[in-house]
Amino acid sequence: MKNNIRLAVVGTGYFSKFHYDAWKRLNVNLVGICSLNEDEANEYSKEFSNCEVFLDFETMIKSTKPDLVDIIVPPLNHLKFIKIAAKNKVNIICQKPFTNSIKEAKEAVYFTKRNKVKIAVHENFRFQPWYIKIDNILKTSLLGDLYQVSFRMRPGDGQGKKAYLKRQPYFQKMERFLIHETAIHFIDVFRFLFGDIKSVFANLSKLNTNISGEDAGIIFFEFKNGIRGVFDGNRLSDHIAIDRRLTIGEMLIEGSLGSLRLNGDGEIFKRKFADNIEKKISYKWIKKGFAGDSVFRCQKHLLNHFLKGEILINSAEEYLENLKVENYIYKSNLKKKLLELQ
């Protein structure tokens, strides 16, 4: 029996396959697919009772009259599609990084509020099972007083002239790339695990001259609770993992009673203070979909909000704080100084 919500989707690019797979397993009533690639749209349509396919977004919205739309396209058209959906009183899920800038994001939030529709950001990293497990561990005070966290992002997909072309070619043209497209995930994860951020210092660089934006950088974070954080990102280097796109890096969390380490295979290890032996923490997760089925978890949470009124943890309004941190990172890099968030 299908969920009694009418869903429309725009986008059939690389990452959309994870969205469609999750919606299929959640048994939604998909009433329309919009894409400039009609062949791809028709293939996805077959999985949803041959729902109607459209080349124009507004035509789809007016024709299918959905309750909810999932926007799975690059940020260039986010604001345009958000405004069309909001004018037609359709609730919205929008893919990260959520518009082109914090200015556009604020406009999107304001416009949806004025039109009395809800908007959520499809931020799935905090739904990855290792971060859910780490969050549960941190809540037990197993590590004592927390000192710092570091994440080394090393997907190894950014070398040469053909970097990103097979999967997401628009990456090459993004003027703000490493932070706006990818590190935004880890800003959200850091805030999920450690709270809001007080100040940042960033040093960003472009290693692959074939692309437009930055692809490497080191960022220092100070959280409001005194914990320190480091994000060390380099898309050209890799790390040890069976699938280097699973965690796309490694995390280390240090406290007064010991440390936690996340490796590239989603394994978590604990080491007690003054001990030289790590112990693997056992927990279950499914090797399905994207990164531990995090897209499915994210969309299940969104569906539970729109169908059952459960509290939404990834509203666009709340997501503005992530974009604020991102904005300060770019400002810090430009000014070459530590900046307090205002």
Report strand order across the widest sheet.
14-13-12-11-7-10-9-8-15
Distance between the termini: 49 Å
Second-tier CATH architecture of the largest domain: 2-Layer Sandwich
Q: Given the helix and strand composition, which structural class is it? A: alpha/beta
Assembly of the depicted chains: single chain
Number of E-type strands = 15
Strand content: 15-25%
Q: Using the coordinates above, name the CATH class of the largest domain.
A: Alpha Beta
- Summed up, the domain count is 2
Shape: globular
User: What is the fold-level CATH name, i.e. the topology of the largest domain?
Assistant: Dihydrodipicolinate Reductase, domain 2
Topology readout:
Elements: E1 6-10, H1 16-25, E2 29-34, H2 38-46, E3 52-54, H3 57-64, E4 68-71, H4 78-87, E5 91-95, H5 102-114, E6 119-122, H6 129-138, E7 146-153, H7 178-194, E8 197-205, E9 216-223, E10 228-234, E11 249-255, E12 258-262, E13 268-272, E14 278-281, H8 294-308, H9 316-335, E15 339-340
Parallel strand pairs: 1-2, 1-4, 2-3, 4-5, 5-6, 7-10
Antiparallel strand pairs: 7-11, 8-9, 8-15, 9-10, 11-12, 12-13, 13-14
Helix pairs in contact: 1-8, 4-5, 5-9, 7-9
